[in-house]
Design brief:
The protein contains three helices and two strands. It is mainly α. A two-stranded antiparallel sheet has the order 1-2. Strand 1 and strand 2 form a beta hairpin. Helix 1 runs antiparallel to helix 2. The longest helix is centred in the first third of the chain and has 76 residues.
Length: 167
C-alpha cells in the first residue's frame, strides 16, 4: 500500500510539473500575442495620425496657395513703386514656397526642414518659435474675445440682450 501511495505521489508530482510547464508556456504565448497586438495597434494609430496630418497639410497647402495669390494680387493692385508692395510680394513668394514644399514633401519634409534649420541656427529658431508663439497667442485671444462678444447675454427676465459690441 505504501508503494501505491508513493507511486501516486510521484505521478501527481509529474502531472503537476507538466501542468506548471504548460501554464508557463501558455503564459509566454499570451504575453507574446498581447505584445504583438499592441505593436500592431500602435502602428495602426501611427499610420492613421500620419494620414490625417498629411490630409491636413494638403488642405493647409491649398490655403497657403490661395493666400499667396491674394497677397500677390494686393501687391499688384497697390504697385506704386513703394516699399510695402515689395514686402507683400516677398511675403507672397514665401507663402507660395511653403505651400509648394507641403505639396511636394508633405508634413515630414517640412518637419525635417525645420529640424535642420534649428540645428544650424538655434538662436534664430528659438526667436522664431517665440514670435510664432506670441502671434498664435494673440490670434487665439482675439478669436476668443470675438466669440464672447457675439454671444447673447441672458437677463433675469429671460430676454436676450446682445453684448455692447454687437449693438
Amino acid at each position: 500500500m505504501k508503494g501505491l501511495v508513493m507511486q501516486t505521489e510521484q505521478s501527481a508530482r509529474a502531472e503537476a510539473g507538466a501542468v506548471a510547464e504548460t501554464l508557463k508556456d501558455e503564459t509566454k504565448g499570451v504575453a507574446r500575442e498581447a505584445q504583438q497586438q499592441a505593436r500592431t495597434a500602435f502602428h495602426q494609430i501611427q499610420d492613421d495620425v500620419r494620414s490625417q496630418a498629411d490630409a491636413g497639410a494638403t488642405r493647409f497647402a491649398e490655403t497657403l496657395h490661395a493666400a499667396g495669390r491674394q497677397l500677390s494680387s494686393m501687391a499688384d493692385a497697390a504697385d506704386n513703386g513703394g516699399v510695402m508692395p515689395s514686402i507683400v510680394r516677398e511675403g507672397a513668394s514665401a507663402v507660395e514656397k511653403l505651400g509648394t514644399r507641403l505639396d511636394q514633401g508633405g508634413l515630414d519634409a517640412v518637419t525635417a526642414d525645420v529640424r535642420r534649420w534649428a540645428r544650424r541656427s538655434p538662436g534664430s529658431f528659438l526667436l522664431g518659435a517665440a514670435a510664432l508663439g506670441f502671434v498664435a497667442g494673440r490670434v487665439a485671444r482675439n478669436l476668443a474675445g470675438a466669440d464672447a462678444a457675439r454671444t447673447p447675454v441672458r437677463q433675469s427676465d429671460g430676454a436676450d440682450m446682445m453684448d455692447s459690441a454687437d449693438r
